């Protein structure tokens, strides 16, 4: 299974989604813009998007909640060990965790750990847990050779159109 994502303006991404009705998209927003995400076996529709192999797939994503994506650059030499460590992650059965995806890039070296939480409060509880500290140790990697390879975290809310907000 593959995962696909691309960034853009909310209006632009909504138009793409409207033209591909057979695909379940997750439209996410934050203060910097919007991101469209979907999972399919082989149907790539984004011309400038990113493609990932889903290495670990737990839970079912839903059209509401809080998404956290950790982007982690991993050198070619470290990929096998890194993948093994993450496949045995410490997020299993965390209260409030809706879904978890471990994504390997088709091109490049930037892995993504995507977690969907029922609320920001649930994610904050996870961040204050002992299991979070252990997970951070697992995620720690060699110091990057240059600043472009520094891991970073991006958070989004699943976008709700006006129609969905009222129901």
UniProtKB/TrEMBL annotation:
UniProt KW keywords: Monooxygenase, Oxidoreductase
UniProt xrefs under InterPro entries: ABM_dom, Dimeric_a/b-barrel, Heme-degrading_MO
Recorded superkingdom: Bacteria
PROSITE patterns noted in UniProt: ABM
Gene Ontology MF annotations: monooxygenase activity
Keyword Oxidoreductase: yes
Record-linked Pfam families: ABM
Keyword flag Zinc-finger: no
Domain ABM: 66-157
Protein's UniProt name: Antibiotic biosynthesis monooxygenase
Lineage: Bacteria, Bacillati, Bacillota, Bacilli, Bacillales
